[in-house]
Write a structure and sequence with these properties.
By secondary structure, the protein is of the alpha+beta class. It has one domain (3-238, 292-599, 607-616). It contains 10 helices and 28 strands. The longest helix has 16 residues, at 16-31. Bound molecules: MU-OXO-diiron (FEO) and calcium ion (3 copies).
Amino acid sequence: MGQDHLTDLIERRLDRRSFLAGSLGATAGLMMGGRRGLAIKRQGAALKFVEVPGGRDGHHHVPTGYKSDVLIRWGDPLDPTGPAFSPTNLSAAIRKTQFGDYNDFIGYFPLGHGEVASRHGLLCVNHEFSRPDYMFPGFTTRKDLVRLTKSHAACELASQGVSVIEVELKDNTWGRVPKSRFARRITGLDTPVDISGPATGSPRMRTGYDPTGRRVLGTFANCAGGMTPWGTLLSCEENFQVYFVGSTKDHPEPENLARYEVTGRLGAAGYWGMFIDRLNLVREPLEFNRYGWVVEVDPYDPTARPIKRTALGRFRHEGASSVVNRDGRVVVYLGDDAPGEYLYRFVSAHTVHPVDRKRNLHLLDEGVLSVARFDDEGTLRWMPLVFGSGPLNEKNGFKSQADVLIETRRAADLLGATSMDRPEGVEANPVSQRVFVMLTNNVGRGKTNPLNAANPRTNNIHGHVLELIPPGGNHAAESYKWDIFLRGGDPKSKTDDADYQGSLVTDNGWISCPDNCTFDRRGRLWIATDGHRGGADGLFACETSGPRRALTRRFFRAPAGAEVCGPRFTPDNTTLFLSIQHPGMGPGAHFSQPTCRWPDQGSDGPARSAVLAIRREDGGVIGD
Ligand code: FEO
Ligand code: CA
Ligand code: CA
Ligand code: CA
């Protein structure tokens, strides 16, 4: 969710084995497209869709010749025969059987080979957020918030986390498969989640209900994420800090609390701890150390427990996109989405096994996490966060690698990492191997996030995109080159200081506040926005090479109040799944009075976050 929204909020108050090999093959092909993709010719990469006009209304818009279907909405039963949506029913048990709220990241995991891989698969969708004034009728003012109960908190926790659904394409339309053995909810309420990697069992990870420091009861604030080459989901815990409440006066780790912006204050997004002991800083002072991690989920095994991978660090994780490096190791790019925070990279110690999936399932437990320093001359240096090296020692309060990871932010501060303008999506281009970083905006520049060459605008209201160049496509190299790919904003505005490499971006095509992104097979970049300052949010596409490099064009326009997230293509690029998050939001809006009633468009129902499946009417490749 956008930082502005947060501030605003607080203020206002199988026979498994037989297909696993096949599906893994298809998934691995998709993810390893980096190497395979080098063979894809760049010619024919021209984007051919007719731009969607900018503006704002209560509907979504796709280009002529395209169709879009609502696949699933907040509150829809995961199994189509399950209990129907009823926002006034405060049963968390029922909400756990339904699609959660605020859908964000989408992962697509094929079921089958070849053409089938793009027609039948599993969608893993993150549920990032919830808020009482949009989830329940009758909570429109700060005064109403005192009526919130444990049932409300439980419903919200049951509506965050992850949904796994099985989907299938028939007659050019996607639908859910009934009675799927894979369909499941992972929630913030009570799904057991294992802890693994160097911070496992650390005294700082132990609580009253888990004295071993090895298992957490749930995951929440799941924003963006990634798909691993071995076909698992990485789900990122982002704005976890708002949910822990209670006095911090006698807290054992005040510096840690402060560095992660955990204030303990009550707010519309921070009341759960009044009713749920483990989220209360007085009753369970260390529970907050067990959030802010990347969670790995195996969608192909509905009995597999999700696992928090502590080797990937602890911060406000936006996403976790991975590539198989040319030496076979897996590399994960990670951003900490807050003003002035950092860009990270994880390189596994061992290589990805191309066939034996089981051997990959714990690859993310061992490796080196590094943080980025950008110098003015265009070099990026990755600095390892390793206990005992440089300042990461006992003198500075670190006794182990567990401590370095639990306090990743402070460790990165000590190494002199470069403060960034809110890193959101980070993805490697499968054709060029260059890495693109979405820096969504920064409207609160101060001492802790000064201007620097990689973040060059003082009041960066529109955000920008960086292009990182690993030498020879080596994602494990110590140094990269970097450049600015584009600076968002209206190119006609003098004050915006926008730049699209000289391209003539139209009034409909300029971007603002880039958030999630993805690449298609031809190496074209697709950027979703969150908080576009020129109208509704959208999905924009641009080529990354040739004369139209960085010339962004609007492919999709969101309904009023919504941000766009989770763009995800099927392997053959003929379907694009898109997350539409928090439609109907706006100043003074709430459950009963949203700014639009998308997608149901009734006269009195709430607006509902939902996933769209977009295809060409002729079934062709999107964008061609
Ligand atoms: Fe949840 Fe940084 O967006
Ligand atoms: Ca969001
Ligand atoms: Ca955002
Ligand atoms: Ca985001």
